[in-house]
Amino acid sequence: MHPTSSTASTFHYEIKDFSFGRILDENPNFHSVIVLGTLPAPSSLQSSETYPSKEASAPSESAAVARLPAILRIERTAFPPSFTDGLSSGVVASTRLIEHTDIYSWMHGWLERKEDLPDVKINVIFPATEVHIRKYTKQELLMVTETPELYDRVVKPYIEAFPASRTQWVRDVVDGKSEAERVLCRTSDFLIFPDMKWDPSGPISSLYLLALACGPSIRSLRDLRGGDRGHVGMLEEIKEKAYEIVAERWGLGRGSLRMYVHYQPSYYHFHVHIVHASQAGMMGMTVGQAHLLDDIISMLKLSPTILSELTFTYGLGSQHGLYDAMAAAQAELDVSRKGGDRVRQ
Which parts form a coiled-coil structure per UniProt (predicted)? Predict the structure, then answer.
């Protein structure tokens, strides 16, 4: 398997060389599992010190061959449109009855191997850093309140401390060094391309695109501004271009898309998630993380600096880099609220 990136000639690996370490997370509802292990290091990165992870080392790891941490997200693929036609031509190779009562039966089934019907989709992060491992590890959520003051004191320094290397893959996409053939639309302000989580061979209802800002100045929703020199024009163009793309390629009309922005985002380079309106149950669409693009545009038209002045409440995972500082800050907010209550009494 050769990852699509500017370094594809350097990072060569095969899934069969993966050495399992441990399960990071699993989701029966989405038929997916995320595992941590190791893969042989490419010749250009023969030192695991670059990507340290004591937990990633597998018992069978050989000292003669350096190995680096790798994360695999494996999920059952959705049925392609051609699947139902195959039901009458032997696509279900065999079955085994589980139980039967009256007119109801349920059974396990095994599908015939076909090139257009893959069993699973595998996303790979390699080499994976400790930040990646923490991000994909199952974690408890804490709802936190972020005031503008907390943003300036806690969150903004956290964002500014991120090394440029963490978003190098974004720069590679923007600069056309990687995934250039997948870009569906490119303007001077943004580009739109399929998200890696989308399997295009599945039903159109699983559609998942991403709009990525070309410039690095907008790191999160907090940086968006209205006014004559603000970002409303770019946001409205993202919306219009997205609808043009899905109308031309997939025959989808107005109202067929859900577009939203995460806060906190998974990486601090502004992007908009574009999914089919029928999608439901995705973690990234939950209240407390997803903010509809239309609502953001409306707020910025109402007040150009409103997103820097609002207090946001959102969920933080226990493995997030902001978790400890924001959890401690909540105690300060509670004390402040109680003090204000006593003054009013």
Answer: none
**The domain containing residue 98 runs over which residues?**
15-43+66-125
Phi-psi region of 71 (alpha: psi -120 to 50; beta: other; left: phi over 0): beta
Query: 127: cis peptide before it, omega within 30°?
Result: yes
Contact (Cβ atoms closer than 8 angstroms) between residue 190 and residue 211: yes
CATH of the domain at 27: 3.30.200.40
Per the annotation, does 3 bind a ligand? no
Question: What are 44-88's pLDDT values in tens digits?
Answer: 666 544 445 444 444 444 445 799 999 999 999 888 877 888 888
Q: What is the pLDDT of residues 222-246, one digit of tens each?
A: 999 999 999 999 999 999 999 999 9
> Which residue among the candidates 2, 100, 231, 271 is catalytic per the annotation?
271
Instruction: Answer yes or no: is 260 a known binding residue.
Output: no
Active-site annotation holds for 271: yes
Residue 344 counted as domain residue: no
